[in-house]
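INFO batch 0412 | record 1 of 1 | parsing
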Amino acid sequence: MSAWERDIPWRQGDVLPDQAVRSFLGDLPGIDIVVVVSHDCDIAQQPNVEPVIEVISGRRIAAVDGNFTYAKNARRLHLTLSGGTEQLTVDLEANRKIAIRKQQLGEYKPVATVGVTTSELTILQRWLAARYRRAAFPDEFDRRLDATGLRDQLSRISKAHGALISAIYFDLASGAAVSR
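INFO prediction complete | emitting tokens
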């Protein structure tokens, strides 16, 4: 591709073809899918303004674990991509982001049979944002979750029924110190 045009085919949530994955990453064990995570507006910008497109590598999985669905876990996401003719379920880890130079990616086109629905894209975006914008629970709260067994109970419930649970909320007295 000689010039980067605004009508390029790449969008957030697109999947790179296997040939591009091998070209950029080689044969890394446990990596068999790469998803574009840069925002559409950043992708469309000229390379002198936004020189790279951020992608995230992951792996295909047979089934989701409810603990990792709906952006409940800021480090890991299980997401089904069902917006194309082929449905694909993936396991993505937040620390596996990679920057690819636009000119290199311009040689490829997204996988045509796999895509994200609007709701799947919203989950992906919420998960990406959660990495940098999330609650930091006090150490005492974490200790009590473990001491009472509540963390294990929530994990079991979420694993079994997580696809039906989009979020779990805790009210910590609006941040005020509460003694017991």
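INFO post-check: Residues 172 and 178 are 9 Å apart (CA to CA).
INFO record closed
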